[in-house]
Amino acid sequence: MFKKILIANRGEIALRIIRTCKEMGIKTVAVYSTADKDSLHVRFADEAVCIGPPAGNQSYLEIPKIIAAAEITDADAIHPGYGFLSENAKFSEICEKHDIKFIGPSAEMINMMGDKATAKKTMRNAGVPVVPGSKDIIPNVEEGLKLAKEMGFPVMLKATAGGGGKGMRVVETEDEFHAKWDAAQQESASAFGNGDLYMEKFISNPRHIEIQIVGDQYGNAAHLSERDCSVQRRHQKLAEETPSPFMTDKLREEMGKAAVLAATSIKYEGVGTVEFLVDDKRNFYFMEMNTRIQVEHPITEQVIDFDLIKEQINVAAGIKISGKNYFPKLHSIECRINAEDPENNFRPSPGKITVLHIPGGHGVRVDTHVYAGYTISPHYDSMIAKLITTARTREEAITKMRRALGEFVIEGIKTTIPFHLKLMNDKKFVEGDYTTKFMETFEM
Question: What is the pLDDT at residue 133?
């Protein structure tokens, strides 16, 4: 087992990893930018190293600085969390060259699944259902338009290196193809340094359902059931739940088998998610694979009583998984609390938190790094907390969430708490009748 793990991340996920490391008797090293010098992950780690100014590309994305921090503190492993360098194949490869264990998949696996066009091709070859579309990266706009006509509109243009909804455009007609192509390419090149695009048939009103998987170093893989992530705005998830109200036992079994097949086909090592689009007839299609821990992992932990960070660390240390597939025993919902103003088009709301009261009680979990007096920086993602409720039934989990949201007090900044309160009282959501298009008609 590792003696010391450096956490190449910040905020709530860094704190989450530190907690599990402490329970496992593993020393921790925090890295931080000057903007995060007062953050709780810095305070609770055994050691902390400043790696640069606030901007991510000068601190949390600076591979040489992070490797140097690991070497001067004698860390024998690095946990990347999510975001930042978590799916960076180069980072995984450099860790290996410096004899530091990257807690996650190898560079080869990240390349295979991180590039979405390659991932689709790999899954198609493995026999996993995929959304109809281009088999490879599309070389130019002319070829793209030709393929779109063959497939039939509408189509979805996607950045092969994409994430967080960037580099994605729905094209409804031939006339708008060129403009949407240029916009997607420019956005992708700006966000990821890679303007390559591929294309899929656009599936209207789908569910976005992901399967949590884990694989070890010996070719074994298993799934830990599903999460429904369909409540999203501009391809950014807002709330998640497990089990999905749309799922049947038959579909859960079929999707679980497909996800395990996806993992075993590449001998996947670590935790990850296989993401699917599910249409109204419950046909499912592989969309992408995330080769890291997910923001929404706590709801899976709650319903199957399982520490996914601990499993990640054990797998990286060479411990075999049980190989057992897990199914939900309870119902759990997560609301992402962001420093955003939902009354004003979810405009970011950085600033100082003057008052904070965190809800508690049976079946309530809050993962956060903020405290009264903490300043939300404009340099990073706006998520400041995850509120998770767990109960025997979906109805009870929703009722509990309403109560917990009512107790959650954050003053000094705007947050998405009012949005989530309205969501938990929305008739369609309460009935489980929602798709990825839900937010298009939702009104604050």
Answer: 87
Tokens of 181: 């192509």
Write down the catalytic residue from 292, 336, 365, 394: 292
CB atoms within 10 A of CB 116: 23
In the predicted structure, residue 116 carries a pLDDT above the cut 80: no
Nearest-CA neighbor of 290 among 385, 441, 162, 393? 162
Report residue 163: phi and psi, to 5°: 180, 155
pLDDT at position 261 is: 95
pLDDT digits over 151-172, tens only? 989 999 999 887 767 899 999 9
Task: State how far Cα 74 lies from the chain centre.
Answer: 29
Quote the Cα angle for 364-45-304, to 5°.
35
Domains present along the chain, CATH in parentheses = 4-103 (3.40.50.20), 132-201 (3.30.1490.20), 207-441 (3.30.470.20)
Q: What is the distance between the alpha carbons of residues 119 and 208, in angstroms, rounded to a whole number?
A: 18
337-346 exposure pattern, b = at least 16 Cβ within 10 A, e = fewer: bbbbbbeeeb
392 annotated active-site: no
Mean pLDDT of the region 219-244 = 96
The CA-based angle 192-185-53, given to 5 degrees, is 25
pTM for this one? 0.89
